[in-house]
Amino acid sequence: MDVNQIDPTSTALLIADLQNDFIHAQGAYARGGQANADIAAVTARVVPVANALRAKGGWIVSTHFTLVPGKGGEPLISPHLKNMRPFLGKGDFAPGSWGHALVDELQPADMSVEKVAYSAFYMSRLEWILKKSGITTLFVCGIVTNGGVASTVRDAHVRDFSVTVLSDGCAAFSPETHQRTIGDLATIAGVATCAKAANLIEAS
Predict the structure, then answer these.
(1) Cα–Cα distance measured from residue 103 to residue 22, given in angstroms and rounded to the nearest whole number
(2) What CA–CA distance (Å, rounded) separates 165 from 64?
């Protein structure tokens, strides 16, 4: 992607999983002892990008990691995730719940998409709504850099979207993992800071 020029009306800020259950002090991850300062700091850096894009007629699209309730409300959760995050349980990341929602600071989103795996494109309607809305350019932010962000960016790339990763608009559970992933993604996508992206949008 040429990060020196964009058409805001065909551009979306794609927010990966900045949800209360991940971010908020009362969310599922904090209750499970998995709060992370680097991850918590992402939202404030992304807000100016979202505001700039809204002001120029662009799109805000949020993706929401989802634990689909099964029989009795118990979540349908993959074994590997349950092993890594044994604290996740009934009601966490449930569709329509407070924990499932986009954090208040970034609301409202123009469109929201539930996701059940790392990539927001996997078994979801994301590609359909982006193309129906005429969106061809994506600024991608969110968590975690090496999980949902990386998988979504790679899937967007193979679907011919023009993608830029917001390097300080993402975070992982370790700075080293974050930096390594950003370096890897730079081979298939543009990379820009949130400040650069906001300035670019404002100048468009």
Answers:
(1) 9
(2) 18
